[in-house]
Design goal:
InterPro entries: ArsR-like_HTH, HTH_HxlR, WH-like_DNA-bd_sf, WH_DNA-bd_sf
Protein name: HxlR family transcriptional regulator
CATH architecture of one domain: Orthogonal Bundle
CATH superfamily of one domain: Winged helix-like DNA-binding domain superfamily/Winged helix DNA-binding domain
Distance between the termini: 20 Å
Keywords: DNA-binding, Transcription, Transcription regulation
Order of helices and strands: EHHHHEEHHEH
Structural class: mainly alpha
CATH topology of one domain: Arc Repressor Mutant, subunit A
CATH class of one domain: Mainly Alpha
Shape: globular
Largest sheet: 2 strands, parallel
GO molecular function, one term: DNA binding
Mean pLDDT: 86
Pfam family, one: HxlR
Strand content: 5-15%
Amino acid sequence: MNHDEGQVEPTDALERLGAFAARDDWTATGWCRIERSLDLIGTRSAMLIVRELFYGGTRFDELARRTGLSEAVVAGRLKQLYADGIVDRRPYQEPGKRTRDEYLLTDRGRALFPIIVALVQWGELLGDDHRTGVELVHRGCEAPLSAHVRCAKGHDVPLGEAAARLKDEAYAAAARRQPHGSD
């Protein structure tokens, strides 16, 4: 969007291909991978906990303290992240204390790494005056990390060269049968 004029530029929207072009004939509600992803990790509290797990926090008290979330919120989110297969629990026991769980990212949770990098990168574009932010860097050369969109053949793909299509006709047929809602 051109912020000054408030108008959408032609390259601000994905080109719609195939059955996806008939956008009013079907709904993505209930079928959309973005919707499903947000169902799993789309809350501020979930992403702050995931952030802290990437930063090396594993214990409940660390996660609550470092996120600034209440213990009740952290407990609820960890329970949900565990149920959704994003975190795993591993028991530990300090001498003389009861057994507790520590939390670790699963493969599904570690797959969020590019999203974390993209959020950090996007946050830098906001232009606010937070100068104490964490910078994600390559351990080998200490250059900042950045997220890029590439096709499966390895080409960098800017928004103006991207398109959207339905994966298959079976999906298109099922999506057409869904009641239209906001998507």
